[in-house]
Design brief:
The complex is a heterodimer of chains A (100) and B (409).
Chain A lengths: L2 E5 L5 E5 L6 H7 L19 E5 L6 H7 L9 E3 L13 E3 L5
Parallel strand pairs in A: 1-5
Antiparallel strand pairs in A: 1-2, 3-4, 3-5
Chain B lengths: L1 E7 L3 H12 L6 E4 L15 H4 L12 H6 L2 E4 L4 E5 L4 E4 L4 E9 L3 E3 L12 E3 L3 H10 L6 E4 L3 H12 L4 E5 L11 H13 L3 E4 L3 E6 L4 E6 L4 E3 L2 E4 L3 E3 L2 H5 L4 E2 L1 E3 L11 E3 L4 E4 L7 E2 L4 H15 L11 E6 L2 E7 L6 E7 L4 E8 L2 E8 L2 H12 L6 H5 L5 H7 L1
Parallel strand pairs in B: 1-2, 1-6, 2-3, 6-19, 8-15, 9-10, 9-15, 10-11, 18-20
Antiparallel strand pairs in B: 4-5, 5-6, 7-16, 12-13, 13-14, 17-18, 20-21, 22-23, 23-26, 24-25, 25-26
Helix pairs in contact in B: 1-8, 9-11
Classes of the chains: A alpha+beta (100), B alpha/beta (409).
């Protein structure tokens, strides 16, 4: 299972093991990263699960539009509900953006 | 038991109050009372991915069990609060337990309205508000040949879509002359009526239910006022909710259809706040009119308003309303409140299954309903937030991005 480093808004980082087959949003939620609101529950209808990921990956078209709602968008922005975790995500670094 | 913050209602709003309080460093005691046996879970999937079986219950939990323990939030499931004593700062449950509080947050939401007619309580007649409701419906479904859905609001339409996907013949009865009449403009209603019919739903408008008929145990059909009998082994009732505020009103809180709250979600009773579906508030996006909003957005954002107020950073509630509904391959996203609009402009082509409806009140954009039109939804939000004055002809022109209109307004 991939080990993912998550950096919270206060700058502290923590490495956690997440389950494959679930989304990064669910992994963040289940590991207690409360700053991720994920209001729509992961159906790509809001932008409240926005994160920065390294290495960067390509957002879907729909996701790309929703990310425009954030004032803190960067090239590395993704909606965490749209990333389904695989073993290849081992080593991913995730940062929680400032509050919108 | 005494709790510094006692939250009544363990849905989206109640859970979010506890989460945000801890996130903001609140160290007092927090307890969350809910009348259901489960951990806090998401309600929207009950008529979508949970009902269809696409998502198991564990995946719709708002947080895993360990989270609540780690955050020191006392969960008190399976308890219904039946009385509030505002002077003594206590609540009493149906089981006779008494809990004291420093601050009370009422987030009890609402109960699904049931049919008042004869037969409305027969086995096989379901509402869809709780996990137990959805489980009961799913358990019976394999033996059901034909379903009648009563009510053409979001719950009824989403349930109909899932039931059609499961291959069940569905008759949908709406008493008004269009579906979604309470929440959307006519063009959107007509689009969804056409869509459901194209998907095989026998959708009947102006249908007055006389009673539900049964064989003494289970439902066997629904009789209309004109005498027509529609056979069905299952009836799904989606006719709205009744706000669960009786104990607060009995305690003297101002209210009626919900409990009245101010911009900081304070009720008229001391140290009692209310949020979510049951909170009757003057919404900035409804021209200040008092309204209740039944949405995850409203529950979450009011929860944050309360958590901020209880941690010394009070800010008035001013969140822009948004909502979503997934039916078949259609993704509806709404922003703003269209009720009371005096003009509506169609943007795009419904036949192409991608379009938006932009609603105006007194020349200003007040809401958008966007169907498979996510760009309009995200760009249109600024028009609603700014109360933009736009030329309707420009709004109708799909070659003009809405963000250009926002910049010009």
């Amino acid at each position: 299972m991939p080990i993912i480093t998550v950096v919270s808004r206060d700058g502290t980082g923590r490495a956690v093991e997440m389950d494959t087959g679930t989304t990064l949003m669910e992994g963040l939620r289940d590991h207690g990263f409360d700053e991720v609101l994920a209001m729509c529950g992961g159906c790509c209808s809001c932008a409240t699960c926005h994160v920065y990921v390294e290495p960067a990956s390509t957002a879907t078209e729909e996701e790309d539009e929703l990310l425009a709602l954030s004032a803190h968008r960067r090239d590395t922005s993704r909606l965490s509900c749209q990333i389904t975790l695989t073993p290849d995500h081992d080593g991913l670094r995730v940062e929680i953006p400032p509050e919108d | 038991m005494q709790h510094d913050v006692l939250i009544v209602g363990a849905g989206h709003g109640g859970a979010q109050v506890a989460v945000t309080l801890r996130q903001r460093g609140y160290t007092g005691g927090i307890a969350l009372i809910g009348d259901e046996p489960e951990l806090p879970y998401e309600r929207p999937p009950l008529t979508k991915d949970y009902l269809s079986g696409a998502k198991p219950f564990e995946r719709i939990l708002i947080r895993p069990a360990a989270f609540w323990q780690a955050r020191g939030v006392t969960l008190l499931p399976g308890r219904r609060v039946v009385a509030v004593d505002a002077a003594a700062h206590t609540v009493t449950t149906a089981g006779g337990e008494v809990f004291g509080y420093g601050q009370l947050v009422w987030a009890a939401g609402g109960r699904a309205r049931r049919l008042a007619c004869s037969g409305g309580d027969l086995a096989g007649v379901h509402t869809v508000r709780t996990r137990a409701d959805a489980d009961a419906l799913r358990a019976e479904l394999p033996a059901v040949e034909r379903v009648v859905v009563i009510g053409g609001g979001y719950v009824g339409l989403e349930a109909a879509a899932v039931l059609r996907a499961a291959g069940k013949p569905v008759v949908l009865l709406e008493q008004a002359d269009r579906v979604l009449g309470r929440v959307a403009g006519e063009a959107l209603s007509r689009f969804y009526e056409d869509e459901h019919r194209a998907q095989g739903v026998d959708l009947r408008l102006g249908a007055q239910v006389q009673d539900v008929v049964g064989d003494g145990r289970r439902v066997t059909g629904v009789r209309l006022a004109d005498g027509a009998l529609i056979p069905a082994q299952m009836v799904v009732v989606g006719i709205g909710i009744t706000p669960a505020v009786e104990p607060l009103l009995a305690a003297g809180a101002e209210g009626g259809d919900g409990v009245v709250v101010d911009a900081f979600c304070r009720t008229s009773l001391p140290d009692i706040r209310a949020i979510g579906d049951c909170a009757l508030h003057a919404n900035a996006y409804a021209a200040g009119r008092r309204t209740r909003l039944e949405s995850v957005q409203n529950a979450n954002d009011m929860a944050i308003t309360v958590a901020k107020a209880l941690t010394g950073a009070a800010e008035p509630y001013h969140a822009v309303p948004w909502f979503w509904s997934n039916q078949y391959d259609l993704k509806l996203q709404t922003v703003g409140l269209s009720a009371g609009h005096d003009a509506a402009v169609l943007r795009g082509d419904p036949a192409a299954r991608s379009f938006s409806i932009v609603y105006f009140r007194a020349g200003r954009v007040v809401a958008l309903d966007c169907v498979n039109a996510i760009r309009d939804y995200t760009q249109g939000r600024a028009l609603v937030e700014g109360g933009a004055r736009c030329d309707p002809a420009a709004v109708a022109d799909v070659s003009v991005p809405l963000k250009d209109l926002a910049a010009a307004a």
